[in-house]
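Worked problem 6 (solution included).
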Amino acid sequence: MTARVNRLSRIALGLAAGTALIVGVTTSLTANADSGAAAAAVRPAAAGRIVAMRRLTESQYRNVIADVFGPAVTVAGRIEPIVRPAHEMIASGATAASISPAGIEQFDAIGRNVARQVFDEQRRAQFVPCAPRDEKLADPTCAARTLAPLGRYLFRRPLTPTEQAFYVKLAGDGAGPSGSFYKGLELSLAAMLVSPSFLYIIETAEPDPAKPGAFRLDNYSRAARLSFVLWNTTPNDRLLKAAAAGQLTDQAQLTAIADGMVQSPRFEQGVRAFFADMLLFEKFDELSKDPLVYPYFNQEVAQALPEQMLRTITDHLLTRNGDYRKLFTTSHTFMTRALGGLYQVQVKHSTGWEPYDFAPGDDRAGLLGQAGFLALYSHAGRSSPTLRGRAIRELLMCEPVPNPPGNVNFTAVQDTSNKAKPTARIRLSEHATDPSCSGCHKIMDPIGLSLERFDGIGMFRSTENGAPIDPTGLMDGTTFQGAEGLGKTMAADPSTTQCVATRALSYATGKSSDDVSPWVEALDKRFAAEGYSIRALFAQVATMPETYEVNSKPLESAPAQLSLAN
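Solution. The predicted structure is:
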């Protein structure tokens, strides 16, 4: 019990530091920006009105720790996931993400472990720019010189005088009982790492001088948004200095900075994060296949599948600066020895990745012919034209498909051993004639059936149960053959580029697809004018005035609930 009380005390200290203090049985914080102590607790003293809060994703948390403290400092443990809204990006879910009592304890344990590594004897010299007067006692001056720079990166803005005084005092309070100046710093840093000012990207606004009565994100909020959208991490020193100088509310300077960021090698990290969100890569964590049905599927293959997709995406869109539409027809990808067995191709090296090109006309061409996509949108023991067709409609064309009624009978579709109905095309014909199912299935199944020459892990096959597979597909009146034909049809459909533009806006702003829809048509036209370059798309998103527009009212009910149970 004593250990638990001490742990909760550390958490409470972190929450208290200029942001929020909630201790009790399932008590919670709500930020009312117009009234009372809650507003004063959450709002950074030197900032404007709070207009949004977005919880860090796990990848962002890990990237921030690596960037601030170095890649040698490890993040041990998993972080409570953010719930994805239906048909939307995790980035949208982050605006309403809560942290449960168990989640807070996870953050606390991870933060304490990080702080311990930062101030251990091997690393402390990197972060402590001064020598304490006595290593066994508190030294407020040296503590301030150490904690202020770290707080600036972690909170994505300078610490307020009140915050700095709090963390310096906390370091002193910890140094006394422990008999170590560095243990005091460790306690203070651990408190920072559980603070909502770190765990949440708190966006604040200021009056827009160009639009009386309207508001816009202020400079520090823009720095955070730019950095997390384009690099998936906290703002670096240059961005924070630009924010301090007021450069990010100047359109010309904002454009110059964003253009430089999309040309940086670090933009690959942002592109990876965006497509992992857009394509629901969290599903790979739960991917499992029946080993009796798919003996080629193993842990090594499972780990390589998402990486192959991301390497293909970043190589085509960044290294080659390719047209986004041709991502669905490209023959170029990467292989490992483990994937070579699945694809039935020769791989020269026993370890690592190597480039590979499919032959012209090979049905593997394009992202949709990759085993990662095909396996992710299949069942454990069989392929699924319905899942694949739905994924294409929803994720790549932004066309939501309703869930099936609760009383649908899937027995016929699931019976892959039925010799009278040997192929998925035949088995799915029952749904096409059922009035309660046909409306949705006719917009999913004809797309997914074109991918049926690939089984539930993405291996090629020409027959199912001894019957030849017909790879004919149909999308919105266009008939095609196989994955290659599907890729060409996708590339020619305007919904494909409009969807990625919609997703980019939603990813950047944390808003739903419906909320950003008024801006998509104009953005898509600029995307086309730039040859459908992903760099151009994100540079446009990062510099559009609409990206930084906010509601005229401050946040009245914080979307984030922070709870602690005693």
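Discussion: The radius of gyration is 26 Å.
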